[in-house]
Structures are given as C-alpha cells and as structure tokens.
C-alpha cells in the first residue's frame, strides 16, 4: 500500500475497513491501545515439505480483532506501526505470544517450526536479539522452533552491523529466512554475505508460474541459486495444483499457500493439520494420516 500522509491515513483506513462516515477511526490511538486491550491475535499458516508432503511448521501471521470493525489484516496498519515506532512493542508481543504457543505445543508433544515476521526497525534499533532471547528463555522453548523471516530491506543497512546481529541471533539456535525474495534490490551475489538458512520465493513469481515462461525461469533460477548457497527454498502463495506440480518438478523444497492451507487460530491449526502426534500429508488430497 502506498504511504499516506498522517492526516489522510485514518480516512483511508476507515474506508478500507468499511467504516461508515459516522464512525471515527483514530488509527494511531487505537493501535497504541490494541496490545493492552488484547485485540491482537495470531493465526498460523502451514508450511510443508514438498518432497515428503510432511508438515514442517507454520508462519505466525498477525491479525487485529477490532470490536467495532472486525478482523483487520496487517497490511492496513503495518506502515503506520513502522512510522510511529509502535511496531517495536507490537512485534515484541507477537514474538512472546508465539513462543508461549510453541511452549504449549511442546508440552503436547507437538514439534513445529514457526516463522516470525521481523521488522527492519528491530534491527535499526538493535532490539531484536534481546527480544528474541528473552522470549525463548521465558517460554523455555527449543530455539530451533523459531524461524525469523527477514525482508531484503534489512540487508540494505550497514552490512557489518546487520551480519553481527544475524550471527548473534543464529548463535541462539534460531534459523533465518529471507522473505518475499525477488521483490527487493539485493543482488544474487549480495545475499551470500548473510548467514541465512532459507529463501522464501515471493508469491508474485508463483502466481503465473503455469502460464508465464519468464516466471518459471525466474523461480528455477532462485531454486538453483538457493541450492548452490546451501539454502532451503520455500515457495509462497501456492494456490493451484499446477503450481504445486511445477514446484515439485523443479526441486523446490518447501511450500505454503491457500492450496495447502490458510492461516488458522492455533487450536484449529492443530486439528486441521496435525493429528494425534502424526503429521498430516499434503500429498494425500483427503489429508489422511501417513
Ligand atoms: P508475508 O510475510 O509475505 O506473509 C504471507 C502473506 O501472504 C500473508 O498475508 C498470507 O495470508 C498471504 N498468503 C499466504 N498464502 C497465500 C496464497 O496462496 N495466496 C494469497 N493471495 N495470499 C497468500 P497477511 O497475513 O495479510 O500478511 C501480510 C504481510 O504482513 C506479511 O507478508 C508480513 O510481511 C506482514 N506481517 C504479518 N504478520 C506480521 C507480524 O507479526 N509482524 C510484522 N512486522 N509483519 C507481519
Ligand atoms: Mg513472512
Ligand atoms: Mg512472504
Ligand atoms: Mg509475500
């Protein structure tokens, strides 16, 4: 979404949210109160191994449950959260809450890796290490369960400082993914400087994979590049079985998307994708237990 001047922001927001002219939406004030009012929730979208079909984990996706306007998706409030710095307490809440959820799952014998979306502001303010290490310690979880999703924007900062922060995070035992890969400005040779574990191919390249030869060539190149750099490659936004078949034929390691499963609250996620400690396979269309 385009960046909007503060004055227009709430009107844009209100219109997007279907608010009527009588309703006054003060986005910044409401966003400030949303944590203490317990209005944020996290939904989990499954991620699968495209070779075995096994469930690998989930991406934690933030939603704002507003009493007046219903469920609000992150793209509508993230730019304001970043401009105001509110993204710091919000993402800290997401990280703590997700670690608590992982701890609950661990106690049930459920082992899943959970992807967390990290803001470049957490790197700029150098808060990310403390936030993640505190959350892991407080929840008492296995750090291997956390996968931090970074955007190419963080790679455009001071390179040495970014690498130092990434090394420290990896020292905790968490893994690192580069989100929305292909949409930013980082060159292919540039990314090898950074200690990464996974590339997440942006949804825009997957969308027309079956129709557009160029997109297929780009995805093939990203998969090859990832494998040369010893990174796992995950395709985002898999919506059709034709896309899934092509990704499997090209040797893409992992997948996520509406075809495989939408984001759900934690209890429903477990019921839908994980049965009695046995992982549910995406390769069986009926989602029968392996
Ligand atoms: P993202 O990290 O690229 O997350 C994937 C987005 O694509 C999610 O949108 C997901 O619901 C959507 N998606 C997944 N599969 C499909 C598909 O097959 N088709 C289509 N059309 N969409 C699909 P969502 O949840 O609205 O999140 C949007 C963005 O907001 C995320 O993009 C991420 O950048 C950001 N975000 C989400 N949660 C957080 C958070 O806790 N903190 C921060 N800083 N950012 C977050
Ligand atoms: Mg993400
Ligand atoms: Mg993404
Ligand atoms: Mg994306």
Automatic annotation (TrEMBL):
The keyword Phosphoprotein applies. The keyword Transcription does not apply. It comes from the Bacteria. Residues 24-277 form the EAL domain. GO terms for biological process: phosphorelay signal transduction system. Keywords: Phosphoprotein. This is Response regulator receiver modulated diguanylate cyclase/phosphodiesterase with PAS/PAC sensor(S). It comes from Acidocella aminolytica 101 = DSM 11237. The chain holds residues 433 to 722 of 722 of the full protein.
């Amino acid at each position: 979404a385009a960046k909007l001047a503060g004055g227009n922001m709430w009107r844009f927001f209100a219109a997007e949210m279907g608010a009527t002219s009588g309703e006054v939406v003060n986005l910044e004030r409401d966003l400030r109160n949303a944590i203490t009012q317990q209005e944020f929730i996290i939904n989990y979208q499954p991620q699968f191994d495209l070779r075995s079909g096994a469930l690998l984990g989930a991406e934690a996706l933030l939603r704002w449950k507003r009493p007046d306007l219903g469920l609000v998706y992150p793209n509508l409030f993230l730019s304001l959260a970043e401009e105001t710095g509110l993204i710091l307490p919000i993402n800290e809440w997401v990280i703590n809450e997700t670690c608590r959820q992982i701890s609950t799952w661990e106690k049930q014998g459920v082992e899943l890796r959970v992807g967390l979306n990290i803001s470049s502001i957490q790197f700029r303010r150098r808060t990310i290490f403390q936030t993640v290490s505190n959350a892991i310690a407080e929840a008492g979880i296995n750090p291997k369960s956390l996968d931090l999703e970074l955007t190419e924007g963080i790679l455009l900062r001071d390179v040495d400082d970014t690498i130092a922060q990434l090394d420290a995070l990896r020292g905790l035992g968490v893994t690192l993914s580069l989100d929305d890969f292909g949409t930013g400005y980082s060159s292919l040779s540039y990314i090898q400087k950074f200690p990464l574990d996974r590339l997440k191919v942006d949804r825009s390249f997957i969308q027309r994979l079956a129709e557009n030869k160029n997109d297929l060539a780009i995805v093939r190149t990203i998969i090859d590049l990832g494998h040369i750099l010893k990174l796992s490659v995950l395709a985002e936004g898999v919506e059709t079985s034709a896309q899934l078949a092509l990704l499997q034929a090209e040797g893409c390691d992992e997948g996520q998307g509406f075809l495989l499963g939408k984001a759900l609250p934690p209890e429903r996620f477990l019921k839908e994708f994980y049965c009695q400690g046995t992982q549910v396979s995406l390769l069986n269309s009926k989602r029968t237990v392996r």
